[in-house]
Amino acid sequence: MRALRILLIVVVILGGLFVIADRVAVNFAEDEAADKLRSTENLASTPDVSINGFPFLTQVAGGELDDVEVGIDDYEASTGNANEKIRIAHLRANMRGVEFSGDYSSATAATATGTATVGYDELMKATKSEPTEIAPGIDAKVVGLSDGGNGKIKVSLQATVLGVEVPEPVEVLSSVKVKDDDVEVVADGLPTVGGRQLAESRIRAITDFQQTIDELPGGIKLDKVEAAKDGVEITVKGSNVKLAG
């Protein structure tokens, strides 16, 4: 019995040491992966990287990690215009089946899903915020975007009729969707301005707009989008996503 107790104590100690070693190893790997990702994607700050699953060392021995979560704040995405970027306030991605090279210099995830948040102030960059003629004697411009409820965006227009500013902004509820690499905003109904119904093509030139969001980390793509309190919430996804290398 005494020998059995000693054996159990040894097993517990060894198990504890293995857990400690495993956690030390995973913390080191997370820090290294975060630094590598920052360098590869030319990020302004170090991202958060969490390697899930236990034991980590067993996953490493098998050459594949089950589940890796990556969080990046204030990511500068491409708009398709070399002189413009759009800031993604929060980008979160969950990577599955992450395989890495023998020297750990590169890693590729079989699949990735996640979310990205773009504030309304950033989305305003795609709107016509300068006065544009929509009918003889009538100009309009977009002065604000906000949550319209039920997944809609409220587009606020400031109109000027014969040089006189309309006292109250004209508000338009709009649907938002993903089209290729664009977030597309389209008015559900057309407003009247100064009591006049305007030509659809002229008013939609102001109310409707698209914002390209491209070159996301690892080649992930936009999937779905919905208006929320502080901006649009975008679902992203991808396959064979390169995390580094």
Tally of alpha and pi helices: 4
Average pLDDT across residues? Answer: 82
Main structural class: alpha+beta
Level of helix content?
Answer: 10-25%
Rounded to an integer in angstroms, the radius of gyration calculated over CA atoms is: 25 Å
List unreliable stretches of 5+ residues: 2-18
Total DSSP E strands? 15
Strand-residue fraction? over 45%
The coarse overall form would be elongated
Query: Gap between N and C termini, in Å?
Result: 55 Å
**Order of SSEs:** HEHEEEHEEEEEEEEHEEE
Mind describing the biggest β-sheet?
7 strands, antiparallel
Explained architecture:
This protein has 245 residues and is an alpha+beta fold. Helices cover 24% and strands 50% of the residues. The protein contains 4 helices and 15 strands. Strands 5, 6, 7, 8, 9, 10 and 13 form a 7-stranded antiparallel β-sheet that branches. Strands 1-2-3-4-15-14 form a 6-stranded antiparallel β-sheet. The radius of gyration is 25 Å and the shape is elongated. The N terminus is likely disordered.
